[in-house]
Amino acid sequence: MKNLEMLTYDELLVEFKNILKADGLKFTSQREAILSTLYENPQHFTSENLYMLVKQKHPELSVGIATVYRTLALLEENGLVSSISLGIQGKKFEIANKPHHDHLICESCGKIVEFENEKIEDLQHQIAKENGFVLTDHLMQLYGICTECQKNQSK
Amino acid sequence: MKNLEMLTYDELLVEFKNILKADGLKFTSQREAILSTLYENPQHFTSENLYMLVKQKHPELSVGIATVYRTLALLEENGLVSSISLGIQGKKFEIANKPHHDHLICESCGKIVEFENEKIEDLQHQIAKENGFVLTDHLMQLYGICTECQKNQSK
DNA sequence: TTACCATATGAATATCATTATCAAAAAAGG
DNA sequence: CCTTTTTTGATAATGATATTCATATGGTAA
Q: Which of B87, B118, B117 lies closest to B105, judged by CA?
C-alpha cells in the first residue's frame, strides 16, 4: 500500500480513483462527497455522524446511510480510512492521511487526543518477536479523564 | 477493589459472595456455575461460547443466555472478570484473577498470547500526564501472525 | 455522442448480538 | 415455613450494520 501521509486532497482523490479503477469500481458523487467530508473534517466519526454531516454538506445529493457504511468499508479496506472500536460508544472512523498514531480517550466526555510514541512501538515489536509473531498491526487506546472533566467532577 | 491476583477458587467464591451481599444480591447456582466455568477454563470466551460450555458442564442446571450476559456484566463491574473487544470477533471475557496483562492476537488462527510489559505501562502513564489526563484504563492489543500460521502460509 | 452493460444507489428488509420485559421460580432472612 | 425481594428463562425489543432488489448512473467502445 502507498504511504498516504500528508497527501493533499487532490492527491488523495487520484489515489482513490486509481484504487477504484484497479478494482473495476466506479467513481461516484456519493463516494467523493464522503471522502471529501472526511478530509475536510479530520475528526473521528461514527457512521451515523458522518452520514448526517455528508447530507448537510451536500444537500444537492441523495445519500443513504447504506452507502455511507459501504463506502467506509471500501475506504478502510484500501487504507484511506482507519477505524477504532470504542466499546459501548461504537466504531469511529477517521481519514488516514496522517502519520500513525494512537488514541487517548476521555471516558467522561468522549474527547479523543491523538499521540504517537516511538518507544512503545519499538517495545511492541520486541514483544511480538519474543513470542514468535510477525506484527501486522496494533491497537492502543488509553482511557482516562481529561483536564476539563476533572474540574467538573470536583465541583 | 481487592487485589484478586492468584486467588484459589474458594477465595474467589468468598469474594463474590461478599460483593453480592454488599449489593443486596443473591448467590444462585447459575451465577456459581458461570464463575466456576470461567475459573476452570482460563481462556477468552465470547458470551455465546461461555453459555454453551456452562450448559455442557452443568447439564442439571437450567441456564439461559440472558443470565450469562447479566452475570458477565455483574462480574465485570466488580472486577472478577475482564473483557477485550476484538472488532469483528466480538467481545471476549476472561477470569480476572491473574496479574494485569495485554494481548497478542494471531490474525490467522485467533490464538491469544498474554504478555505484560512494565516499560510500556510507564510510558502510557507519562503520555496521559503530558496531556492532562488521569489514566483509568488502557487497551493494548498487538495483531500479527503466529509461528505456526507463518509456516502454514509459506507452504 | 450514444448505447450498452456493469456497478452503485436508496429504501426497505434482514440479521445479529445484546438488552429489556415479565410471569414464574428460587434465595435470604426471619 | 412464610414473606419479600431478587433472579431466572423465554421471548420480544432494540440498535447497529448488512443485504436485497429495482432503478439510476458511470465508464467505455463504437
A: B87
Contact A113 B107 (CB under 8 A): no
Among B113, B137, B147, beta carbon nearest to A143: B137
Beta strands in A60-133 (DSSP E): 81-85, 91-95, 102-106, 112-115
| Helix, strand or coil, per DSSP, at residue B20 | helix
Please report residues of B whose CB lies closer than 8 A to that of A127. 104, 115, 117, 142
Whether pLDDT at B38 is above 90: yes
**A89 touching chain B per CB within 8 A:** no
Q: In the block, which residue shows the cell 495483531?
A: B143
CA dist., res. A149 & res. B126, Å (int): 19
pLDDT at A111: 82
Q: How many CB atoms lie within 10 A of CB B89?
A: 12
Which residues in A lie closer than 8 A to residue B123 (C-beta atoms)?
117, 119-120, 123
What is the model's pLDDT at position B109? 78
The count of residues in chain A is 155
Round the average pLDDT of chain A to a whole number and report it. Answer: 90
Burial string for B112-131 (b: 16+ CB within 10 Å, else e) reads bbebebeebeeebbebbeeb
Burial B44-61 (b: 16+ CB within 10 A, else e): bbebebbbebbbeebeee
Q: Which portions of chain A are predicted below pLDDT 50? A: none
Q: Which nucleotides of D are covered by protein (CB under 7 A)?
A: 5-11, 16-20, 25-28
Considering only CB atoms, A85 lies closest to which of B87, B132, B137, namely B87
Q: Tens digit of pLDDT for each residue in A52-65?
A: 999 999 999 999 99
For each of the domains in chain B, give its residue range(s) and CATH number, in order of start: 1-98 (1.10.10.10), 100-155 (3.30.1490.190)
Q: From the CA of A66, how many Å to the C1' of D17?
A: 9
